[in-house]
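Chapter summary example: a protein plus 2-phosphoglycolic acid.
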Amino acid sequence: MRRPIIVANWKMHTSPTEGVALAQALIVLDLPFDRVDVVLCPPTLGVIPVSGVIGSGPIQMGVQNVHWHDAGAFTGEISAAMLTGVASHVIVGHSERRAMFGETDVSVNRKVRAVLAHGLTPIVCVGEVLEQRDAGETQYVVASQIRRALMDVPAGKVAELVVAYEPVWAIGTGRNATAAQAEEVIRWIRAQLEGEFGSDVAHAVRIQYGGSVNSANCTALLNCHEIDGVLVGGASLVLDEIAAIIRAAG
Ligand code: PGA
């Protein structure tokens, strides 16, 4: 059995003060933290103050992006090296970064390798846009994103990472993929991983769904055998919503 993982992607929301308040409110709730991995990904500015709240407790710290170099003249960036001892997870290749900030499969691969090299867990995002789904290209697009993201990553490392299947048409739109749609693509991703890295790796790696997940639709998604958790954007900013999602996963 793979342990479910719920990732809260706060995107560019919450001041440090607001992030601390949300984390403080979440941590005191009676939630199944012993059965579910929960990762909070505030904006970079909130990472240190929020990590002060979660301390060494069950909630884990994540960030939304990193650069692949350890240090250098890269204005505005942070590195995986800087996160050692601060965060455990890094979202890599989110579709918003691909669409708006020039992220490519090549940079995603560099970031995945840098994150792993520093002992952190990448949450590798893949997913098709609506035109690709309508054209019947979902499997091709997702397989190619996965293959390129994981190029030159050793099989043992692949087993440790998290994949997030996030159809772009479902992100922030209120139109989530059905559990059946999500499970079909996730099963396909696992088959690709099996082909490339073997069945032990494919069965170990956790694959989440993301895109308009909320308290009303999460149960159907989380009940699917293939879906190992969810990556939550908008609903993760609302205490009752994220709490209900964590509860549904446990
Ligand atoms: P959403 O975002 O839940 O607001 O659709 C999901 C994501 O982008 O990770």
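Key point: The beta strands are 5-9, 37-41, 59-63, 89-92, 121-126, 162-165, 206-210, 229-232.
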